[in-house]
Amino acid sequence: MRLKSFSTLLLCLFSLFCVEAFGQAKKPRLVVVPSDALLNQMGLLGTTDDMGEVNYVQNYKTAFLDTDFKACIAKIAEMFSDRGFPLTMLEAELRRAQGKNIVIPVDIRLELNYKINKSGPREELYFELTALDAYSSKQIGAASGPSKPAIGESKVNLLQEAVLSHIDKFASDIDTYFTGLADVGHESRLTIESQGGVDLNDIIDDVEDWLSNNCVNGAFSTDNVDESSIQVSQAMMPLYGANGRALDARNFYSGLRKALEAKGLVVKQSSSAANSGSGGGTLGDAYLSIE
């Protein structure tokens, strides 16, 4: 009887350990980045002209030379880490990505903006935090508010005071959103183009059959099909592959590439590299070229 009770206790402890470890594994990966508004305020948001269309160029690396900014990013990261969220540090990832065309592997991007308002000797910090799905770039949460006016406080202390009353609900909203993705999947977009004369109308059934079989609940939307292009949106990828590793569009759609190659087609695969320095949006984009 004692042995049975002891075995039962061990089984319960093991189950609790597994549940805890599983729960930790399912937490979203976050990265904190300065918003374009904050970079513009710091004089670090450049522009380029692409045939009359203005594109913004974010100078993230130089931003980390500002000690106040660096400390504020670290404080936000610390506050989320204290609540059990694994943090990807942008400065370290920028160094790792230097000279390479890679995308920062995160689930949710937190864009931080803040400004100091002065009234006589008193200073008040107003902050904004916006949570964006790194696969679809859609906003999934936001928090904002001022600190109490104070004299002689550092930006970091003012930021912490302003954020503290919002962060628990904000973190809970992010966790709830990410947990819900287990049922619906990550949103992704797929572009297939013909570069070698293959009529894509001839392979659309194969593409849609693969999507139906591999997307969560078979959910996707074919937006356009013609002889040279296929556009798919809202294709819901599983969060994790059979090996338990997090999926992004690159490794998810490699399955489709292999299926098309098995039919004798020559297929090249790539993903959009835009915004890769901030970990934004590109994890859900895939491009297949039929040669």
Tell me about this structure.
The chain is α/β, with parallel strands linked by helices. It folds into two domains: 28-183, 3-Layer(aba) Sandwich (Rossmann fold); 185-290, no CATH class. 38% of the residues lie in helices and 29% in strands. It has eight helices and twelve strands. It has helices at 2-25, 36-41, 60-63, 67-81, 90-97, 155-184, 204-214, 249-261, and strands at 30-34, 45-50, 53-58, 87-88, 108-119, 122-133, 139-146, 186-194, 221-225, 229-237, 267-270, 285-290. The strands form three sheets. The chain has a five-stranded mixed sheet with strand order 4-1-5-6-7. It has a five-stranded mixed sheet with strand order 9-10-8-12-11. β9 and β10 form a beta hairpin. The radius of gyration is 23 Å and the shape is elongated. It starts with a helix and ends with a strand. The model is unreliable at 1-25 and 273-281 (pLDDT under 50).
Distance between the termini: 70 Å
What is the CATH class designation of the largest domain?
Answer: Alpha Beta
Strand content: 25-35%
Please give the largest β-sheet. 5 strands, mixed
CATH-derived topology of the largest domain: Rossmann fold
Instruction: Output mean pLDDT.
Output: 87
How many domains, in number, for the residues?
A: 2
Cα shape: elongated
Q: Count of DSSP E strands?
A: 12
CATH architecture descriptor name of the largest domain: 3-Layer(aba) Sandwich
Secondary-structure element series: HEHEEHHEHEEEHEHEEHEE
Q: Output the number of helix runs.
A: 8
Helix content: 25-40%
List low-pLDDT spans.
1-25, 273-281
Instruction: Provide the gyration radius in Å.
Output: 23 Å
Would you tell me the structural class of the helices and strands? alpha/beta
The strands making up the biggest β-sheet line up spatially as: 4-1-5-6-7
